[in-house]
Design brief:
Pfam families: Transgly (PF00912)
Organism: Massilia violaceinigra
GO molecular function: glycosyltransferase activity
Number of helices: 11
Radius of gyration: 21 Å
Helix content: 55-70%
Structural class: mainly alpha
Shape: globular
EC number: 2.4.99.28
Protein name: Biosynthetic peptidoglycan transglycosylase
Distance between the termini: 66 Å
Length: about 240
């Protein structure tokens, strides 16, 4: 092979070294966008987070199943909708998928502790994580989460985002969605959740498996009372 041919092959290799990852990134984003469009019309029967937890559960119990039942938006108590917004994302009806002020506070907190301990995620970002990503904490995952959040806000209404979130959020080990949570904790339906019941479920969301095991936690009780007091001011989409 001549020197010119070797030089051309080397340049092409270098070009693909840079273009390859870019093309992979674009293909991945197109996949996520397609799925977001699909879920805007079709209810997801499962999510990445559900699949991950089911796999873990089946390592110890091969026949384990998740508790999950989809219910439409109008069959979810307004108490739970208000409680989740009051607890998780007070500016849900106003932001474009990312609450930049909350994100800045989370960044400063992570820097003080020299590790990622919280992400300041909105409901939209949490939905992005639940649908497509993992529970790992890293700035790379957070970046992808934000991109998907913008896709969700572009394609879906706020009501649709909240409807899906309340149907796929984890409320305990193997417990996903408002209907399964209402029946598991209170033996009622998502439509009939009372104010205090809804507030307690909302407070459990950041660490549901822990609070499933520690339902008498003093923090859980204090935080529930606080959310009850905030619910009346939560704006529903």
């Amino acid at each position: 092979m001549s020197k010119a041919a070797k030089g051309g092959a080397g340049k092409r290799w270098i070009t693909w070294l840079f273009l390859g990852p870019l093309l992979i990134f674009i293909v991945v984003q197109l996949y996520f966008f397609f799925m977001v469009c699909w879920y805007s019309q079709v209810n997801p029967s499962s999510t990445n987070m559900m699949d991950d937890q089911l796999a873990v559960m089946r390592e110890k119990k091969p026949k384990a199943v998740l508790q999950h039942q989809w219910v439409p938006y109008e069959r979810i108590s307004e108490n739970l909708k208000r409680a989740v917004i009051a607890s998780e994302d007070a500016n849900f009806s106003e932001h474009d998928g990312v609450d930049w002020e909350a994100l800045q506070k989370a960044y400063e907190r992570n820097n003080r502790r020299h590790k990622v301990v919280g992400g300041g995620s909105t409901i939209t970002q949490q939905l992005a994580k639940n649908l497509f990503l993992t529970g790992s904490r890293s700035y790379l995952r957070k970046g992808q989460e934000m991109i998907i959040a913008f896709m969700l806000e572009t394609v879906m209404s706020k009501q649709r985002i909240l409807e899906i979130y309340l149907n796929v959020a984890e409320f305990g080990r193997g417990i996903f969605g408002a209907e399964a949570a209402a029946r598991y904790y209170y033996r009622t339906s998502a439509a009939n959740l009372g104010v205090a019941q809804a507030a307690k479920l909302a407070v459990m969301l950041p660490n549901p498996r822990y609070y499933d095991r520690n339902r008498s936690s003093s923090y859980l009780a204090r935080r529930t009372t606080l959310i009850v007091n905030r619910m009346s001011s939560a704006d529903l989409p």
